Every structure is written in C-alpha cells, then in structure tokens.
Automatic annotation (TrEMBL):
Sema5A/B-like TSP-1 type domain sequence ranges: 174-235
Protein name, as recorded: Sema5A/B-like TSP-1 type 1 domain-containing protein
Membrane topology summary: Single-pass membrane protein
Pfam family, one: TSP1_2
Coarse class of the protein's main subcellular location: membrane
Amino acid sequence: VPPCTMRNLTVDGHFGTWSQWKPCTHTDGASVGSCLCRTRVCDSPAPQCGGWLCEGPTMEIANCSRNGGWTPWTSWSPCSTTCGIGFQVRQRSCSNPTPRHGGRVCVGQNREERYCNEHLLCPPHVFWTGWGPWERCTAQCGGGIQARRRICENGPDCPGCSVEYQPCNTNACPELKKTTPWTPWTPVNISDNGGHYEQRFRYTCKAHLPDPNLLEVGRQRIEMRYCSSDGTSGCLTDGLSGDFLRSGRYSAHTINGAWSPWSPWSQCSRDCSRGIRNRKRACSNPEPKYGGLPCLGPSLEYQECNILPCPGKSQMK
C-alpha cells in the first residue's frame, strides 16, 4: 500500500515568494524587447499525494522596451490653390506602436509635401485702368453732360461700369440778342388822301443761349411810313403808324409761335454701354408773326441710349 494512502498525506501546492527582478528579453510580435522578469516556484509546499497544483503565473514580465512604428500615410490633402502652383500634405504618426521603456523612436519624416496644379495656369488678373479725362461737355452753358471712360485690362469681367457721366456747365447761359436787317420798303394796300403807306420789318430774338448762331427767328417788328402822292414831302414815318401797327390795325392778327413735332431721335453715339442721342423741333408750327410770342422751351433734347453693357462689359449700377 502506498504511503499516501496509508497515512492520508495529500498536500495542495502553494507558490513561494517572487524572486528579485532581473533583466530578460521578451518577444512582442516581430520585435524583441528588453524587460524585467521575476519568477516563483510552486514549492511552499509542493503538491503531494494528489494535492492541487499551484494556480497562477510562474513568471511576471514588466517594463518591456518597445520600438516605435509608423502608422500608414494619410491621404493627400486638397491642393492649396485652385489654379497655379500649390502644395498638398500627407502625414503619419509614430504610434503603431508608440515607443516605450527606452524603445527606439521612429526614423523618418512624419509629414510629406508635394506640388500640385503646376500645369493649371490661373487666368490673368483683370483690373480697371484709371479713368480717362472728362470729355467735352455737350453744352457750353445751361447744363450739359460729359463722360469719361476706362478700360478693363486682361479680360472682360471687371466689376463696375466702363463709362461715367456727370453734369457740366450748369451755369445759366447769357441772354443774347439777334436782330435781322430791315427789309426793303414795300407798299401796303392802304391809301390816304391820294398817298399810300409803305412798311418794312425786321426780326429780333432774345434768349439765354451759349452761341448767337443758335438764335432763330423771333419777334417781328414793323415800321410804317406815309408817302404823299405828289412826292413833294417824300415819305414820312408817322408816330401814329407805329401805334396802329402795335395795335395790329395794319398787320394781320398776332400769331404766337408753336413748336413743330419732335424729329425722330438721332443715331445713338454708342452701340452699347450708354450713349447719347438727340432730337430737334422748330418754332414753325406756326412761326410767330405780327408781334406774336416765340416758343418757350428747348429746341433740342438729349437722351441716354443703348444702356446695355457691351459684350463682356459690366454696367454701372
């Protein structure tokens, strides 16, 4: 009979104390690291006669060094420019794994850059030239319009307008007077004591205009004279004749002037981007006669035309 059965000497095993920490090596995947290790033995007591073995590790490993490893590169970032030379970036980190306990750090760059869009040229920069000088005013006085212009360099898409307008010569025009020469004396179908009357006339116009050549037919002035039948006294201007004339006795009834219809608008000064056109009318519907009043208002009108921008031009707002 075995001694264990005879004496009932079953003893479960127990670990003894841990040994001191000692340097050791440890394999972690593809790398070998330096570590600290300690051991213990199941001998306090050792299991006997079918007793339980010790449960737990017989070795502990600590402070293993681990070399760092790179993560995969990230994707390239978007190009820093939409045209012209730019650059892209990609990155990686030394965290696959992270070095520890004296392990080697990763060798190499954690960031890479490269050029991009080097063959994609940017369109030229567009810009306005400076404003040109103001053009000649459309009127010497009484208010006109003048323009100045600028050019869009390197393309048609400059913001704003290529033409600018402003009022000019807004000072009132001086009053000008124009008088025609007297017409020859002509007989009037009026007789008195065998003699007859003669008349002559001229026109006078007053207006606030920049140029005397712009004056047109104005108020009519008539003079009368009496010529005796025997010719002894010649022809004498009678003061009463002027009174009679002014009252309209010997002239037809007074006719005030009226404007004719406006003419069609003239051709625009520009095909696009704002031009100027004009139209005219005359004080001839009817003309003023026998002391009638002249027409009031302008005989010439201006208007902007073709205000749409030229192709590729922007319009001033």
